[in-house]
Design goal:
There is one protein chain. The protein has 127 residues and is α+β, with helices and mostly antiparallel strands. The chain is 28% helix and 29% strand. The radius of gyration is 15 Å and the shape is globular. The relative contact order is 0.23.
Amino acid sequence: MPHITTRKNIPGTSPYEPIIGFSRAVRIGNHVYVSGTGPVGAEDASPADQTRAALDLIKTALEKSGASFEDVYRTRMFLAHVEDWEEIGCAHGEVFGKILPASTMVVAALLNPKWRIEIEADAYIPD
């Protein structure tokens, strides 16, 4: 008998979801993939506070999928400005300083010109 893996789309609150056609996160089996998450609603905040806002949205998506930050094994941070790396990195470390996922920082143009950060996360929920 073939193994059947279930897929669950987890919607978020981004105004871009229906336009672009994506879910905030997708859970397939025990794996959770969180889409690039910008600081929606915190566009005028500092880079650190934008990072915290994005991480709050990621936390909600993880919880809706049955996961938590402790299940995250990889993050990707897309920075609009390289000079923000340390402030953003410290805010990321507030959540992941003990979890220590594999992580990447890349400088890129972001969808909203006010965003300083966008973050993706991958998690695995143990049986």
